[in-house]
Amino acid sequence: MIRSMIPNLFTLGNLYCGFLSIGYVAAGETRNAAILILIGMMLDSLDGRVARMLNVQSPLGMQLDSLADVVTFGVAPSFLVYSTVFSGTGYTGLFIVGLFPLFGAYRLARFNITPASTSMKHFTGVPITAAGGIVALMTLFTHWIPNAVTMVVFFALCYLMVSTIKIPSGKDIPMPKYGTIVTIFLLSAIIVVWQTKKADWPFFLYIAIPLYVVYLLFQFVWKKRKYVDENGNPTKKRFKLHRKQ
């Protein structure tokens, strides 16, 4: 029982990051709010892999994952982008940013009823996790990226989430899922904090960077484990992948 709950703890951690992100936006600490969403991305990527490693995949975990994604990568980025980019537009902007979680929730529901054989080959529309991560990444650097550019990307992501555009899943590419976005974030964050005083560094950056190191180490071990059999001999057989949106 305890073993089966371990992957769900990662999922709940992802959900809690979304909740905390909303709270930090309300407190005016938007950079910490953005970093929390990126931390949520790492936890979201790990829960499925941990479930497969422990062989405890379950329908409960899949449904819990979708619910957590709506909060962390739908609602939280909406509050964040409103506070940093749309705040000057008043209630009009509030209604506009509300489209993001609506489209994201629709995209998740559509994914959940998609045959597994189809979803393994490609995504239909941009995954909400990637969309929320991109929004968080852009709001983290609003002093470099014009608001108009962020708005255009925001609307584009809203459309792409519910579109029928086929996007390669990238599951066969030797790169951690969502790793590209998180890596760009970390490299950009390092550049920014290098040019600022230590006292101005977002607090959660101290958590995000060590967590990312652990994340990469886990990915390396997981990738290596996928290509060896139970006796440690090399094999080309791949483990069946758990569906992730």
From TrEMBL:
GO molecular function: CDP-diacylglycerol-serine O-phosphatidyltransferase activity
Subcellular location: Endomembrane system
Domain of life: Bacteria
UniProt keyword terms in alphabetical order: Lipid biosynthesis, Lipid metabolism, Membrane, Phospholipid biosynthesis, Phospholipid metabolism, Transferase, Transmembrane, Transmembrane helix
GO biological process, any: phospholipid biosynthetic process
Keyword flag Transmembrane helix: yes
Pfam families: CDP-OH_P_transf
Catalytic activity field: a CDP-1,2-diacyl-sn-glycerol + L-serine = a 1,2-diacyl-sn-glycero-3-phospho-L-serine + CMP + H(+)
Keyword Thylakoid belongs to the record: no
Region forming the signal peptide: none
GO cellular component: endomembrane system; membrane
Membrane protein topology class: Multi-pass membrane protein
EC assignment: 2.7.8.8
Transmembrane segment boundaries: 9-27, 121-142, 148-166, 178-197, 203-222
Similarity comment text for this entry: Belongs to the CDP-alcohol phosphatidyltransferase class-I family.
The protein, known as: CDP-diacylglycerol--serine O-phosphatidyltransferase
Lineage of source species: Bacteria, Bacillati, Bacillota, Bacilli, Bacillales
